[in-house]
Amino acid sequence: MELAPRSDPAQPELDALARVAGQGDLAAFERFYRGTVARVHTLARRIVGAEADEATQEIYLKAWRNLTSWRGEAGVSTWLYRLARNELLNRVARRGFPETGVEEHLSTRAAAGGLPGARIELEEAIAALPEGARVVFVLRELEGLSHAEIATRLGLSIGTSKSQLHRARLLLRAALGEGLKT
Amino acid sequence: MTVPDPWLERLSEFLDEELESSERAACAAHLAGCERCRELLDDLGRVRRAARALPERQPARDLWPGIERQLTRAAGRTSWLLAFAAGVLVTLGALLALRFLTDGRAQPELVARGEDYLLLLHEPAGFGAGLDEAQHAALVERYGRWAAELGARCTGGEELAPEGLELRPGAGAATPIPDGPRVGGYFLLRARDGEEALALARTCPHLELDGWIELRRIRKH
Lengths: 182, 221
Fold this sequence. Notes:
The complex is a heterodimer of chains A (182) and B (221).
Chain A: H1 11-22, H2 26-48, H3 52-66, H4 76-95, H5 102-112, H6 122-127, H7 131-142, H8 147-154, H9 158-176
Chain B: H1 11-15, H2 21-33, H3 35-52, H4 64-92, H5 108-112, E1 115-123, H6 133-150, E2 154-159, E3 165-166, E4 175-176, E5 182-191, H7 194-202, E6 212-217
Antiparallel strand pairs in B: 1-5, 1-6, 2-5, 3-4
């Protein structure tokens, strides 16, 4: 039994693994999992926090079921990450996407003033963001979706998506404090 | 108390180059004279850079064993199920396309205990219309894979033929069910409790195909 971690397979190798796995080869699917899970789990952690493990498992079970629907037009990792994003956003949607309250607006204003904050790691600061701001921030800043896509996917206006992104950045700036400059 | 700065709320849009050219020019002019906004813009840029440079991390524990367990529980039945579904299609056509038998090897204790639930698969009008035989078979396979993955927790399921009759009290004739939304099939689940039944039902491919599910506990008499 090989226990040493494998290095991330390159894209063509992932595609090849996915084709074999699509025919029911579990060993190939495991290698595919190991080559992609860091990105999937990182996204899951950022979007659904404590449910990341459960969500990641669900994503791969679904990927296994649906591998036959991957036609090879885009790389399989693109296909997988889109599936992952949809699954995670469905989770968020099931809980109900939070509205921005008046108090949150006030705290955003305070954050704009650059309140001194203890330095914490950026990843933790992202995790501590209010959910609405966090999800928009992750999709825009880390996943590269446009505001139009985010708005459609989350049922927001484009203006709300933009203001949530801005708010997230301001809150992160406040949370990181002087640590931002180093 | 300072007057709220009108550009303060727009600096992310400036940073992301999402302002229209006239607004962009006005914002740039403002920035030239406002140190506070310049500092803020720099910081927002730092946040953006730092976030984009964040590394991906592996999960803290290996999730593969859990995934593998769920997949192998289903794997033994998949090939049988696909062959079966194909055979049914050839011989009986769409009428009896979905059929899943219980697997005697899988978790008898789970089958013995727990409650039974009925999943009614509701369909919008025109659901599945225009599918050719191969596409229909692919659809059947998708439901079949799902049922197979549930192992002993799925105790049955069928597709319903689209045509049917409505019978009302009295002597009137039975009338064809009208066009429009209808129940297109069902699954029977065995679950520990309503919570597990709900969790199982949520994974049903029907929900990804514009259908909706009615989940009902079966009262045994």
